[in-house]
Amino acid sequence: xxxxxxxxxxxxxxxxxxxxxxxxxxxxxxxxxxxxxxxxxxxxxxxxxxxxxxxxxxxxxxxxxxxxxxxxxxxxxxxxxxxxxxxxxxxxxxxxxxxxxxxxxxxxxxxxxxxxxxxxxxxxxxxxxxxxxxxxxxxxxxxxxxxxxxxxxxxxxxxxxxxxxxxxxxxxxxxxxxxxxxxxxxxxxxxxxxxxxxxxxxxxxxxxxxxxxxxxxxxxxxxxxxxxxxxxxxxxxxxxxxxxxxxxxxxxxxxxxxxxxxxxxxxxxxxxxxxxxxxxxxxxxxxxxxxxxxxxxxx
Length: 299
Prior knowledge:
Arc Repressor Mutant, subunit A; D-Maltodextrin-Binding Protein, domain 2
């Protein structure tokens, strides 16, 4: 039994006549009759009543037609989806990513993605979480990689990693010799100079929450827009600072976890529920998770 057999039964039932069905299918009437006879022999059931007045379906024929219509419809949908996947190869994928994290996530993911979709053009926009959600909803990008505080009902969120905010301390700082645990008490650093992100930056708000919840007031001597700059200045023994776990680990710096519920945040891939590129986004998400899991195993 084949899809062609199902199609033959459909048109014979529609025209109630072998000759007209054969004409519509562009085959001879004898070839159509032979195919139906062979199908009935295979099934061990008679599908049509043949009389001088025409052709009608038996009970078995009606059941066969009903079920085969479902199969034909599913096959049609499958073909349309596969055609859509084929057209994906020539599309553009717009990726929005939180500033600083583009250099962390994307170099690990894009080379593998390019192997799967060599013809897909990639457009990357780095911006703040607020702006990223805005441009995603306005279809300027297809997906966003970022930390989110609020969740929009129009979007789907796939968690990819939980990241810790760390305290970066110069190795030559005397306090490091007294710390045996990977988790530290911030109060030990009350007399230290801090290098922080500028106020107004979302990550700075998260750092302020950590400090406020611990009744800790850091002595800020310098502010910058970038975590990499904080990390670099700490390595030069200009002070201590908060950095994300994904930051490059420098030889002259020790990184400590902080005992606080605000010291970790979740990152997601977000995309619209009605996206026109579900397959590409699904594959990108899988590659992202594989890449991050592989990276975590190295740690």
